[in-house]
Please model this.
Amino acid sequence: MNSASTTPVIAVTMGDGAGVGPEVTVGALLDEATTGRCRPVVIGDAERLRKAAGILGVDAEVVAVDSVDDAVFTPGRINVIDLGLLPADLPWGAVSPVAGDAAYHYVRVASELATSGAAQAICTAPLNKEALHAAGHVFPGHTELLAHLTGTDEVSMMLATPAMKVIHVTTHIGLIDAVAAIEPGIVERTVRRGDRTLRDSGVESPRIGVCGINPHAGENGLFGYGEEDEKIVPALDKLRADGIDAQGPLPADTAFFLATRGEYDLIVAMYHDQGHGPVKVLGIETGVNITVGLPVIRTSVDHGTAFDIAGTGKAGTESMVEAIRQAANLCA
Model:
């Protein structure tokens, strides 16, 4: 490894080998803007990455290494800790328990590297939940898997695009369950995690807009059953008493509009689609998923395995490039 470099080591997981993960990983790691910011080491399958390079028609030197310390960083070289878990004939674009199991182990090894200090951050290519579950690893997604692997009780999902940043109070549960799960404690903790993340990234006094649950944030009891007053307002009172600029509860449609005008540095969404919908409309190509609250830095692409185009060379690398850039920035 280039010991003279002070750029952070990023453990990059290849994702589900049957999806676009290998392609976006190779494409991103051949981007000079990416490699100039950090020292990426892939956790994955070296032969699958070579096949992805062939599909993309690029000249990449994919080199298997035993550890981060063995990695050498030169233009065109991709260092990979090769777990060798994928069969040579694994088809592209199909759910595979073998690929799901491999994706789990890529994340497991990356987590071990980050928690041990061998890597300063994790950046993940997409895995497939159906394949993950078929392999016996029953987690809703990366966020919950990494919380389990690091022994973290509660984390938050933050989506970041050039237009706005959104953190979620609840994520991968049904809407009825999400409303039931929202209570002042989790709202307060979510806002605090978001505030701390923004401060750590250089925002001195974050302006945070907190969405309501009901249309028009309940409109003084006209919609819903007083959920805003019961579940959100007590948290905001405590946060503001501690000097955190958390405004709300706000009608979600207004909150996102104001965020795009620069009036808020962060929007707090109460449930999955309340936050994901606006973000994906505004910039899924460069969107990044950041897990907030882990003992390690973790970013990810804001798209799935895209089985419909896997193995065709059509997948864009913008989100993966941005995810690696954000990971490097958060290490600063």
In short: The chain has twelve helices and twelve strands. Residues 97-116 form the longest helix (20 residues). The chain has a mean pLDDT of 93. The radius of gyration is 20 Å.
